[in-house]
Structure formats: C-alpha cells, structure tokens
Amino acid sequence: MNRTARTTADSSLSHSGAVGSGRDARRPQGTARRGGPSRSANAGRPGQGRAAGAPKEFALPVTRTAPLPAVETFAGLDMPERLKTVLRAQGMSAPFPIQAATLPNALAGRDVLGRGRTGSGKTLAFGLALLARTAGQRAEPRSPLALVLVPTRELAQQVTAALTPYARGLRLRLTTVVGGMSISRQARDLQGGSEVVVATPGRLKDLVERGDCRLGQVAITVLDEADQMADMGFMPQVTHLLDQVRPQGQRLLFSATLDRNVDLLVRRYLTDPVVHSVDPSAGAVTSMEHHLLHVQGADKHATTTQIAARDGRVIMFLDTKHAVDRLTRDLLAVGVRASALHGGKSQSQRTRTLAGFKSGHTNVLVATNVAARGIHVDNLDLVVNVDPPSDSKDYLHRGGRTARAGESGTVVTLVLPGQRRGMNRLMSDAAITAQETRVYPGEADLSRITGAQAPSGIALTAADTEPPKRTGTTQQARRGRPARQRRRSSFNTAA
C-alpha cells in the first residue's frame, strides 16, 4: 500500500511513443526436480530441465499526443476536494513516482499503460483517477460505471480495502466480485447498484452470463497485474469482458512486467496510451537485500524450521499445496505459529489465515504462489523461497511482499547443490546481485542473515494461530443490524 514518504529508489522513466487505435496463457512448462522439505516434483524449476529465461518484453508503444507532466504533490492534481481531504487524513501528501507520473493523464481521461514494481503504489495510481472521474454519478441496478479487473481474490480484496475510504468520501458504492464467495449475494449487491466493481474475470463473466451484471455503462476500465492474468490463462475471459464495456471508454492497464502476453491487450484495447515505466523491468529495489543460502538436502528442513522460529513474521514459499500443508504441520509440531495458504483452501479459510498473519497471531505464512501477488502486510521484512521460483518473474512477485512502499526487507532463497546454476541464471535474468552464503543449521551466518533460532519445541495446533473470535456482544450487535446492511457490509461499500 502507500505511505507519505517517497522512495528515492524509484527512478521515473517516462516513455513516449504509437500503438494502433484498435480496441483487441499459458502457464510456463518445465521439468520436475527433487529436493527440499517438500520432496515433491514441480514443473519449471531453475537449473533443471529448462532455462529460467527473463520475460520477453514487447516494444513500448509510442504516444502520439504528448503526456502531461508529473506532479510533486497530491494538492496539485485536479481531483475533488473530498478526495484530497481523505488523502490528508491518511497522512499522504507526496505521491510515489508511478502516481505522480500517471495521475495527471488518467485524470484527464487518457488511456494509460503503466509499469511499476509490486508495492510501488499502482493501486492509488489508477484508483484515485477512477474514483475522481466517477464522482457525482449514480449507477443503475446491475450496471456499474467503472471496473477494476484483477487476477486473484486476495488482490481484489486488497484493492477494495485500499479504495474504500476514498470511495466513501465521494459517496460511491464499491462492490467486490470474486470466486469462492456467494454468487447470489454478489448478484444482490449489483442489483442494489454499485458505481465501482472490483472483480476477478471468471466470477464477473459468470454474473454477466446470468444477467446479473451489464457492462455497457462502464466508462473506465482498469486491468491490474495484467501479466499475471495472462499467465493464469484468463485472457479469453478478460477479452470477453472488455469487448462489452463502452467502446470509447477509458482504459488503464497496470502491470509489474510488460511481456508479450500483455501486448495483445495493449494493441487491441488501448488508444494512443500515455506510457509510464517507473522501474526497471526486473523490478530490483535498492531497499531490498537478496541472499542465496546454499544448503545440503539433509539440512534443508532444519534450516527452514530455524528460520521460521525467528522473532518476527515471515512468508515462506513452496512449490505445492501438499508441501505447504506438510511444512505447516511440522512447524506447529515444534512450536512455530504457522498457517498454510494455497488455492486448495476455501475463501473463508484464506481470509482467516491472512487476518491471523496480519494481526500477528501467526508468525509464519507458508504459501504457494497464490500469495505472490495481492497481499500487503505492513512491516514484513523477510520472504523465504524454500523452493526456488520458476523464473525471474515469479522471483520478483514473491519478493515484492517485502520492501513495499519505501520500507526495507530481505529475500532469502534456499539453494540445493543441483539448483545453483539455475538460480544464478535466474538472478542474472532479474538483474539482481545476491549475496551467496553456505549455511548450516544452528550456525551464526544463518542467524545473522535471517534471525534463525531454535524453536520452542512446545507443540501447537492450528487453533493457536487464529485471531480470537468476536465476543458475544459484537455478534449480538451484528445480528441486530438490518438484513440489507448486514448483507452488504463486507464487500459492498457505500457512503
């Protein structure tokens, strides 16, 4: 998310230049590997079976119409005063580079193609413009006026949480539409009228096909993390939805990388876009330290456990759901407060897990790549790749959970002997220089880099990692609310 301080690590590079005026996924494949706590095979591991090549970027389009200059403060933007009041209340006065560069043009109604690393402030870069340009309008039932498409449920909820105070300030209704939740409830929210919808492509397509949502009035469309939507195979759903919004509407496409999967969206749907790239493509962040810790296979589980037992929170990434569940059980058994997050969990389980991690009831979030985007946790200073990522793009987004919004952080990757060449190639592709250290459980270097220590050995259960349930008074208060208000309270925000 965003904070007042501006980071000097970001170098603003505005690219100008032309794209056709038309409005027009495969997951990487690889070979299996062995090793690590999971002892399970997974496709596409670095150094075994295929090269972990850097994402191939397309040539950035040339803007025919000169862009407006960047601003230095939010006060200098042409936005409703109520938005500026909320910004001041949030303690924000100076925009981050991607906000400073894109907001003047987005507020003026230009199409925007923005590239910025995860955690660089993209949400408010598109969110403030979308809300400002929608202010004062009222949506008809089932006909939103603005749309934000995101690849995952977690990112949808994060975007909703970030935009909610600003939407309330403008008396705009905001609805989140994602899978894993009641589609009937979401249909009721849309029937009640929402100016802004934040959605994952699959669930929104289902609602459109049911007749519960009509996109013909959508004048502003945002694609957030467009590259991941392409990687996850959502391109058919995305193009199906974009073909239904207002043809002359505004499009804002934001992504951490602009590889060739995104080129289709740019060529088909963006008209004379203002292009802003506010970071190198590799997304290296100077406030982030990178470490490759070389371990022997026999030591990897003990090394992982001692890192997890550190004081402070950590996200640990593994290849598979099975490996995540097994490591979580092992950590709980030795007294480490750990919770599992992966695509096999229900939405309510994932929501509780994230709430426990953010509140500090859980110290270790053990996850597959489902957590690699769309999760923001304040003051998270360590990410550990227990299993190395498939490529530099995955590395970027895993590591992006730390060192966000100008904070500092450390990314650690545990590397087995057979993975060294692949990891070196991956880091080269990412244009990142990492410190390499051979480590052993219980030794000083491991503790110095990660804060590793021996676990307590006192077994815990999953219940020990959950936030306390609401008190009877709170539950009674919730039951006392009118049904309509209660139904819309979690995912539909109105003034």
UniProtKB/TrEMBL annotation:
Keyword annotations from UniProtKB, A to Z: ATP-binding, Helicase, Hydrolase, Nucleotide-binding
Lineage of source species: Bacteria, Bacillati, Actinomycetota, Actinomycetes, Kitasatosporales
Segments forming domain Helicase C-terminal: 287-447
UniProt xrefs under PANTHER family: ATP-DEPENDENT RNA HELICASE RHLE, ATP-DEPENDENT RNA HELICASE RHLE-RELATED
Chain span(s) of sequence motif Q motif: 72-100
Family assignment from sequence similarity: Belongs to the DEAD box helicase family.
Entry-linked InterPro entries: DEAD/DEAH_box_helicase_dom, DEAD/DEAH_RhlB, DEAD_box_RNA_helicase, Helicase_ATP-bd, Helicase_C-like, P-loop_NTPase, RNA_helicase_DEAD_Q_motif
GO molecular function, one term: helicase activity
Protein name: DEAD/DEAH box helicase
